């Protein structure tokens, strides 16, 4: 088994801003596994907030060379690397390679129903109320908008977006930018504006108070939920979890996390980091039937890879086998 790993950079169509900062490109890491006949690929997005960098993730993946020579497979990988971006890229490359070798799509290998298109959110990054109103107007025909919030003026931003997109469903993501008092103050206004849900309003390390207050606006765990080991601490604090393959460490754990979360009574959202269609392809398998789907990464890029995922009025469509799976 041969392993190749490389960084790839995709310029964004516009500056993307959240409560923790801004970016102008998506820096991804692609792992490629080859048996000299078939090739499997997986993409991940290292995330500094979780202590990852492109260099550290590449080093983690490269550390697998000897293990692969000694027969490392996808199952053994789950214990060899921790949940995170590096394992995601290799896990998805294993799935893709298995599909190519067998001539069987990943959804069948995983025992899943045939995937269909899913409506995805489109993200409006953090900006002034006037700019966010203008962006909302540009995208008012989209059925689901996601707003990045997390600072002074959030109510004004929400009112501006609702004015710009009166008919869209709206969810908001505070990216840990609020505190308990901010949630309690803002929740009634968000409900009045028809907001469906808020992601990670409080810092993941300081979210215990969510169990002590009423949550009239459903709360989704993002930074607080990585893999199945996260779930016990989320009970009573959150109503929904956001599954991202870069947090779970790949499709294998993401599918297991979805099953356990649903069994525990959580609703499920499936999201993404800002990456290319190669990141979205496996995530769409997890997103089937999810309460909320947020796989708009390729829509935020100035250019995607070819062939990319297809987006239209029906949502994001399953990947071509030429891309993945």
TrEMBL record:
Binds 1 Mg(2+) ion per subunit. The keyword Isomerase applies. Its EC number is 5.1.1.-. SMART domains: MR_MLE (SM00922). It comes from the Bacteria. Its cofactor is Mg(2+). Pfam families: MR_MLE_C (PF13378), MR_MLE_N (PF02746). Keywords: Isomerase, Magnesium, Metal-binding. InterPro entries: DgoD-like, Dipeptide_epimerase, Enolase-like_C_sf, Enolase-like_N, Enolase_C-like, Mandelate_racemase_C, Mandelate_racemase_N_dom. Gene3D superfamilies: Enolase-like C-terminal domain, Enolase-like, N-terminal domain. Residues 129-220 form the Mandelate racemase/muconate lactonizing enzyme C-terminal domain. The keyword Plastid does not apply. Belongs to the mandelate racemase/muconate lactonizing enzyme family. This is Dipeptide epimerase. It comes from Salinicola acroporae.
């Amino acid at each position: 088994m041969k392993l190749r790993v490389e960084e790839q950079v995709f310029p964004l169509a516009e500056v993307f801003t959240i409560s923790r900062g801004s970016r102008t490109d998506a820096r991804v890491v692609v792992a490629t596994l080859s048996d000299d006949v078939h090739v499997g690929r997986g993409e991940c997005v290292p995330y500094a907030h979780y202590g990852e960098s492109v260099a550290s993730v590449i080093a983690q993946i490269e550390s697998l060379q000897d293990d692969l020579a000694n027969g490392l497979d996808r199952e053994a990988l789950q214990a060899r690397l921790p949940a995170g971006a590096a394992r995601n890229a290799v896990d998805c490359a294993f799935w893709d390679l298995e599909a190519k070798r067998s001539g069987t799509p990943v959804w069948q290998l995983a025992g899943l129903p045939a995937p269909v298109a899913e409506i995805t959110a489109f993200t409006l990054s953090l900006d002034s109320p006037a700019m966010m109103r203008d962006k909302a107007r540009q995208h008012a025909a989209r059925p689901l908008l996601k707003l990045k919030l997390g600072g002074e003026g959030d109510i004004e931003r929400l009112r501006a977006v609702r004015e710009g997109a009166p008919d869209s469903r709206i969810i908001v993501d505070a990216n840990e930018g609020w505190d308990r008092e901010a949630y309690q103050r803002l929740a009634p206004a968000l409900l009045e504006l028809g907001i469906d849900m808020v992601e990670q309003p409080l810092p993941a390390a300081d979210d215990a108070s969510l169990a002590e207050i009423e949550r009239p606006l459903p709360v989704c765990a993002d930074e607080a939920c990585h893999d199945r080991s996260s779930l016990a601490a989320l009970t009573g604090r959150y109503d929904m979890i956001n599954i991202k393959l870069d947090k779970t460490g790949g499709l294998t754990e993401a599918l297991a996390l979805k099953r356990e979360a649903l069994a525990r009574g959580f609703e499920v959202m499936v999201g993404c980091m800002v990456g290319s269609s190669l990141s979205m392809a496996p995530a769409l398998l997890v997103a089937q039937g999810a309460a909320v789907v947020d796989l708009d990464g390729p829509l935020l890029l100035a250019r995607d890879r070819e062939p990319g995922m297809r987006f239209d009025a029906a949502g994001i469509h399953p990947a071509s086998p030429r891309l993945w799976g």
